[in-house]
Write a structure and sequence with these properties.
2 domains, binds FE2/S2 (inorganic) cluster, 175 residues, 0% helix, mainly beta, 10 strands
Length: 175
């Protein structure tokens, strides 16, 4: 496989259960094998390495920064922060959700109980599988936006980082 500079990414694991300090910053090798789930609406988007599988505690969400080269016309800005993603390891698989609230775009946090995602801006609650939490206040019209995610043969976790229209019932990927 040819070396792709866009795949050399840095990772910062921001939070397990509410911690804000950086726990890790590592350069990751290139990917070879798709082994995790992925969803549609993302063909052609680059895969960005965001974590090592072994860094992710089983069943405990971890928030990571997505850092990658950004291409705009004829220019490339190296290693730009694109956004944040919540990862949740389930055995050998990983779920990934953008940390942008689908209501109006605030940053999704982990609730103090560690069993829900929460947006404090206008109060929205989500289960750890991204669904809106039944019986809790929720201004969002939809659940969290899942991102395509895969685990490579080297046990690195990669996502296709997408931005979504906020305030709609249906998830719409922005260009
Ligand atoms: S932006 Fe999250 S609830 Fe409004």
């Amino acid at each position: 496989m040819a070396k792709d500079p866009s795949r050399r990414r840095a990772l910062t694991v921001l939070a397990g259960a509410g911690a804000t300090g950086a726990l890790a910053a590592v350069a990751l090798p290139s990917a070879r094998l798709v082994a995790g789930p992925a969803s549609g609406g993302s063909s052609g988007r680059p895969w960005v390495q965001v974590a090592r599988l072994t860094e992710l505690p089983e069943g405990q969400p971890a928030r990571v920064r997505v850092i990658a080269d950004q291409h705009d016309g004829y220019t490339t800005a190296k290693q730009q922060p694109l956004g944040q993603v919540w990862l949740l390891r389930k055995g050998a698989e990983v779920l990934a959700f953008t940390a942008t609230c689908p209501h109006l775009g605030c940053t999704i946090d982990l609730a103090p109980d560690g069993k829900h995602f929460f947006c404090p801006c206008h109060t929205s609650w989500f289960d750890l599988d991204g669904k809106k939490t039944e019986g809790k206040p929720n201004k969002s019209l939809r659940g969290l936006d899942a991102l395509p995610v895969r685990v490579t043969a080297e046990k690195t976790v990669e996502v296709q980082f997408l931005r979504f229209q906020t305030g709609t019932a249906k998830a719409e990927v922005l260009g």
